[in-house]
Amino acid sequence: MSAKALLLIAAVLAVLPSSAASSGKEAVFSSRGLGPVAPLNRRTFAGNVLTGDRVDHWVVLFCVDWYSACEEALSSYMSLAAEHSRSLNQGSILRDIVRFASVDCAVDKVLCNEQSVEDYPTVAHYKGGKRVAAKAGSRGSLAKWLLKELPSGDLVGEARAQPWLTDAERSLALRALASFAALLAFFVWAVGHGADLWLARSMMRELPYPEKAAQREHEVPRQTAPAAIPVAAAPTSGGVTRRLPQDW
User: Fold this and answer.
1) Transmembrane segments in this chain: where (predicted)?
2) Is the peptide bond before 208 cis (omega within 30 degrees of 0)?
């Protein structure tokens, strides 16, 4: 496949509408599955290169498809992008050291004007969302320029090979982690037992005491005697004695 065809494919992919672009927001995407060079448009450029998230260094080629110098630069640019991506991003999981991209200025003229692109091809280096260097035109070696701008693969490998913590720091971190785990376990135990004690105490308050309950069971209700009916006293002296019916 010729360099012109590759640039044409990149331009077509760059102008494809995305869901984020249709909503008016910058498009953020994962450029790992797009090969060594990711095609960008104005939306995806702002959402990835200018944010500085997930990638330390962005290298962007600004070109046009009708210029012969861009066709020649694209072929070497793609091979250098594959080489540097393989050496610098090997073993990276959440964050890449470098990513390479391209912008077709024949399609995204506004973006190229915003990035002060005056000559083709222009290769710009972005770090932390800001442009730090640029190589305009075809003069000079692009390979040497990239070696000067990007970190060395050997230094990156040594930095990844070095442990984050020394033996003493690792031992201290493990002790702190064990202490925290023990404190957390005690807290969970205290909360659980405290809830059980509170529930048992609440149930005991609702139930009668055993002594009073037993006393109430053995108590016999007292029967009250009926009230006595008053009887009229018999007269002591003469006269007719009045008898009650029960004396008849």
Assistant:
1) 176-199
2) no
Cα 59 to Cα 82: distance, rounded to the nearest angstrom? 12
Q: Give strand pairing partners of 101.
A: 38, 60
Closest Cα to residue 103, out of 197, 10, 202? 10
Per-residue pLDDT tens over the stretch 70-113: 988 998 999 999 999 998 887 666 788 999 999 999 999 999 99
Query: Distance between CA 8 and CA 47 in Å, rounded?
Result: 23
Closest CA to 65 of 119, 121, 143, 132: 121
Integer Cα distance of 1 and 107 in angstroms: 22
Range of 32's domain? Answer: 3-161
Q: Give the count of beta carbons closer than 10 Å to the beta carbon of residue 3.
A: 18
76 and 170 belong to one structural domain: no
Residues 169, 65, single domain; the answer is no
Cα distance between residue 12 and residue 2, in whole Å = 16
- Measure Cα distances from 235 to 228, 229, 238, 247 in Å: 21, 19, 8, 15
Whether 151 and 34 share a structural domain: yes
Residue 7: name the closest of 115, 79, 102 by CA.
102
Q: What is the pLDDT of residues 186-202, one digit of tens each?
A: 888 888 777 777 777 77
Based on the domain organization, do 75 and 169 belong to the same domain? no
